[in-house]
Amino acid sequence: MEYLEFELPIKELEEQLQKCKVIGEESDVDVTQTCKQIEKKLKETRKEIYKNLTAWQRVQLSRHPDRPYTLDYIRAICGSSFLELHGDRNFKDDKAMIGGLGKIGDQSFMFIGQQKGYNTKTRQYRNFGMANPEGYRKALRLMKSAEKFGIPVVTILDTPGAYPGLEAEERGQGEAIARNILEMTRLKVPIITVIIGEGASGGALGIGVGDKVLMLENTWYSVISPESCSSILWRSWEYKEQAAAALKLTATDMKKLKLVDDIIKEPLGGAHRNREKAFELVSDAIVNSYGEFKNLSPKELVDQRMEKYSNMGVFKG
Prior knowledge:
Strand 2 (97-104) and strand 3 form a beta hairpin. Helix 3 crosses helix 11 (240-247) and helix 6 (133-148) packs parallel to helix 8. It is globular, with a radius of gyration of 21 Å. Strands 1, 2, 3, 4, 5, 6, 7 and 8 form an eight-stranded mixed beta sheet that branches. The longest helix has 20 residues, at 32-51. The chain has helices at residues 8-26, 32-51, 55-62, 70-78, 120-125, 133-148, 166-170, 173-185, 201-205, 226-233, 240-247, 251-256, 275-293, 298-310; strands at 83-84, 97-104, 107-114, 153-159, 191-200, 212-216, 220-222, 262-264. By secondary structure, it is an alpha/beta fold. The protein has 14 helices and eight strands.
């Protein structure tokens, strides 16, 4: 398990507990009481640290290398029922954007999401979770297929942004994202969006228009990353913590601003600390959200979605 800088007091206590247990196993010394004291302190320290996280610390947690990614959630939730679908039928298959059909119980869903890699080789293969235009066009193709067969859509967001390369711009990156936003506002099936990590810029918004938008507790959703914001405003990355606080990008801030609908609580310490629990919480949230929309007619669904997004940004002085 990797530890972030602010988690180091937890690491020290966990190491102490491990040593204490080893001493107890290898000698006749009774260490039960000592272990209990360390466990108690560990529990308190964890609660204290994770209760008072800053915006920047949540950004760090959302990028934790052990954190589960889109495919981890889909495989855990759908099991062997997941069938991945490939290609945009136009240019090629984008490995940063994945999608396919899967079941939760007896209900089929079309899952679409950005996938990051977990080591150097897979990060390159997945282009660090940054989709090209063909990724967004693949996502749209799958959404349209789901609409045709009356299957609800689940989009899973985890990207540092859409790929900013020259070839992406040549193939119409901006148009592909804009087209998706337009088509998603009028899609005639329920759309449930879950932010499981980084929700950065138009790259996230390209699959982020939903009837219900859910954020995991330690994730962020913003027009720009704290580092990029810092480099624009201060010409340096050193002010990223200030930028993170000013951007109001945490789940709590987004809920307060009515830009997302609900927050999914994570296991203490983040989703990577108890993956099974995190998968279960996300699965339940998807099922409950679908329950709210499954009896609405396509017209009611689209009208409600349009109303929801039209009301965003309304400010009363």
